[in-house]
Amino acid sequence: MKKQKSFAFLATVLALGTALAGCGQQQSSDSGSNSGSNSGSLQKLVIASVGPLSGQYSDYGSTAKAGAEYALKQRQEDFKKLGFDVQLLAQDDQADPKQGVAVAQMLISNPDVIGVVGHVTTGASITASAQYEQEKLVMVSPSSTGANLTEEGKQVVHRICARDDMQGSKAAIYAKNQLGVKSAYIVHDKQAYGQGLADEVKKQFEKDGVQVVGYEGITAGEKDYSAVINQIIAAKPEMIYFGGYYSDAGVLIKQLREKGFKGIVMGGDGYDSADLVKIAGADNANNVVFTSVVGDIGATEEGKKWISEFEQATGNKVGIFTSFGYDSMNVLLHGLEEAIKANNGQKPTREQVLEHVHKIKDFQGQFVKVGFDDKGDNEYASVYVYKYENGQKVYVGEAQ
To answer: Which residues are in the Leucine-binding protein domain (predicted)?
Structure first.
């Protein structure tokens, strides 16, 4: 009897909830039909910014988020004139593939979310993209460089940065032709980004006749890499290439120098953080070279002006992915604006936004030109070279 009463009560609650939900949907629909600059009512649209905002890779996520947020603030009034209140929703995936899935599922369940700037790291991007693909929720990554991301045939995936196969091969060519390297020991962190980059360097070295005297993986987050360092010292390479992030690179470099290695240490854009110098030590970071998918934004007067305006407006310093977070958001906003226009000023579907982002062929961002190929890769992406000198990051030039 008690069960029957409970079921009856539950049925009543569910019926009431359904009725209220129906009213809510009707109000939303009415609001949509009257939206526009003359009605005074705005439809809410949400763009998510996703990356690591906590943990050892937070420098990447926080800088990309800051750039994306700044870009959106500059365009919000334009969208209000079209009848839409476009808001940012920042999410922390901790650079963890599992957390990337959890965040993606949460975003998919929110009907206001119309696109994603992110994810920032390759591993999280790959797992999250499988979720977005189911709902045609477009993503534009500022920094996920792993080649596999766009090789899996997902329609939703886009990035404005160069791929690891491009970054890795250009790094190896630069090391051989510009640094004169004849032998190298290759190490990676066993993760999608680091190992993918290391594999491409190894492939190019072998193609060009640079001797690869060793190839080993280490476990990210460990504090003692003496086992692999002893192997490296015994092999006597001219250069060590480590595919991984700054936190592990800093520890590895410090311990290598303490063991007497004075040669070149090279890596990818995962090295681009002042924390690498703090961890390794300024003197130890000398002779460390890295490639990046992001050029020197302060190299021009226009870039310097943008940096000054950004820092005054936000109170943040420009970091590794600030510029590409900014351009990724503007790419997504361009696609959204085109979708709204094509839909006669009405709220577009996720699939319509995806369609118009994917169509982008010659969008001139603030720092990079963007044109997506069928896979979602940027046809205009480039690779650049930097080095650490006396504790400072120094721009060398575009990798040729």
So the answer is: 47-391
Tell me whether residue 204 is in a domain: yes
The Cα–Cα gap between 373 and 60 comes to 25
Q: Mean pLDDT across the chain, nearest whole number? A: 90
- Look at residues 265, 292, 319 and tell me which one is the last residue of a structural domain: 292
Last residue within a domain, chosen from 264, 292, 320 = 292
* 151-187 pLDDT, tens digit each: 999 999 999 999 989 999 999 999 999 999 999 999 9
Listed residue (293, 302, 297, 288) closest to 319, CA to CA: 297
Residue 327: phi, psi to the nearest 5?
-70, -35
Give the pLDDT confidence score for residue 20 in this predicted structure: 33
pTM of the model: 0.81
Handedness of CA 138, 96, 167, 67 (dihedral sign): positive
Domain of 194, in residue numbers: 165-292
Is the preceding peptide bond at 158 cis, omega within 30 degrees of 0?
A: no
Give pLDDT tens digits for 77-119. 999 999 999 999 999 999 999 999 999 999 999 999 999 999 9
Tell me the CA end-to-end span of the chain in Å, nearest whole number. Answer: 80
384, part of any domain: no
**Which CATH number is 209's domain given?**
3.40.50.2300
Same domain? For 284 and 172 the reply is yes
Question: How far is residue 277's CA from residue 221's CA, in Å, rounded to a whole number?
Answer: 17
Q: Are 37 and 81 in contact (CB under 8 A)?
A: yes
- Looking at the structure, tell me whether residues 169 and 284 fall in a common domain: yes
Confidence of residue 299 (pLDDT cuts 50, 70, 90): confident
Total number of domains in the chain: 2
